[in-house]
Amino acid sequence: MRIHPRKTVSYLLLSVGGILFLATINWKTEQLDAFDVQNGSPSDAPWWREGSSRIGESRSPPINIWHSGTDRYSDRILAQMAHVPTDYTPSSPMKYIFVPGGIWDTPMGQSKFVEQRCRVDRCALTIHQPTRADAVLVQNSKDAAWMKKQPGQIWILWLLESPMNSIGLTWLQDNINWTASYRADSTIVTPYEKFVPHANVSRLPGQAMGNFADGKTKLVAWFVSNCNAGNRRLEYARELRRYVSVDIYGSCGDHRCARGSHGKRCDTLLRKDYKFYLSFENSNCEYYITEKLFWNALFNDVVPIVMGGRKSDYLAAAPPHSFIHVEDFRSASQLADYLLKLDQDDRLYNQYFRWKSTGSFINTKFWCRMCAMLHDDNKPVIWFRDVERWWRRNATCTRDRWDRAADIVPSWKMSVIQ
Ligand SMILES: *[C@@H]1O[C@H](CO)[C@@H](O)[C@H](O)[C@H]1NC(C)=O
Ligand SMILES: *[C@@H]1O[C@H](CO)[C@@H](O)[C@H](O)[C@H]1NC(C)=O
Ligand SMILES: *[C@@H]1O[C@H](CO)[C@@H](O)[C@H](O)[C@H]1NC(C)=O
């Protein structure tokens, strides 16, 4: 099932960016299930794979599910997904998660946990009785500003947007226990997509399967509606357009595409005609990589040209050799030269598709992980004394390039939406 990208759709968070690839071809497989190694039948698959009927799970997670430790990119997602707390049983008392203001399109009650087939599903979302709730889920709004934290309550801060596009957090004082965001240093990491390499693949194949340049007559496309992003992405695209053809669709450009149902027609147009797509985020902040990389580009077989997180963030989240970072080049004109070179050489262009069939994008089961962690009786005590300072720390975003010190934004200069 593919749903068209829309930032506010909380579904986005549930399927979600891989972390397992390091600069060279170096698969990290120790967190993966034996299913991948043995290539077993679907019914033997871990519970979160499609078609699985397996029930028992390891109750001792192989890695610490709470802290990322020293590895900047350890997201602990697979371990959290496998986690079933020791004392948990299917008749354990329900954990109630109060959601101030509700969640657009997400039903209250237990259904989300059942629908995701959670191993630990005794949780319910509610907009009633905040004082009796076990947890409070704070989103990008001040809907919880009137609330008083009850003893024993776990407050979870859930953020989808970058620090440049989220509200000020000082009003939360020291109330937040866990964070949930795309950042790998969150308690519950919620990347937009997560790529998990198959354990039976130890290196990239020498060649892509098929010719992905076939029939493509156009070079670069970009679908964009916000023309005033703080990272000057539109200026960069216009500069690039001086050297190569860049078709800008939407309100910031002169190309139009009738979306059709779920944007299908635009996807088809991209897939058939274009070689490259500008996966430019609306702000350049560390780890900030959204559906623009995955859904717009990678899933449509166009090579993403990325701007947003640091290069190392993309190396960790994207499939191996699947993207071009703007900071691989000193200028837009040098990037243009490289694109022209790839345009002329199908063999080189197809290098960007060798990763296909070497792994899969998994549903990271945000709700399941949250529920399992809430049921854990051995939770470590965690809270943020100043979550605003954590979220908008020094140098977490840059106004333009990461490799130019003058662009780096100090925490106290970060603009905050009130
Ligand atoms: C590797 O395993 C995946 C399933 O995990 C399977 O789809 C794929 O065909 C296997 N590849 C090889 C080369 O055995
Ligand atoms: C949650 O945060 C509060 C401070 O707001 C703290 O006193 C409490 O121990 C924390 N609980 C857990 C389980 O981390
Ligand atoms: C903020 O980060 C920049 C870049 O990493 C660094 O040069 C600067 O010293 C830092 N400032 C503070 C106050 O930590």
From TrEMBL:
Keywords: Glycoprotein, Glycosyltransferase, Golgi apparatus, Membrane, Signal-anchor, Transferase, Transmembrane, Transmembrane helix. GO terms for molecular function: fucosyltransferase activity. Residues 103-192 form the Fucosyltransferase N-terminal domain. The keyword Ubl conjugation does not apply. Pfam families: Glyco_tran_10_N, Glyco_transf_10. SUPFAM superfamilies: UDP-Glycosyltransferase/glycogen phosphorylase (SSF53756). It is a single-pass type II membrane protein. The chain crosses the membrane at residues 9-27. Its EC number is 2.4.1.-. It is an enzyme of class 2 (transferase). Residues 215-390 form the Fucosyltransferase C-terminal domain. Belongs to the glycosyltransferase 10 family. This is Fucosyltransferase. It comes from Paralvinella palmiformis.
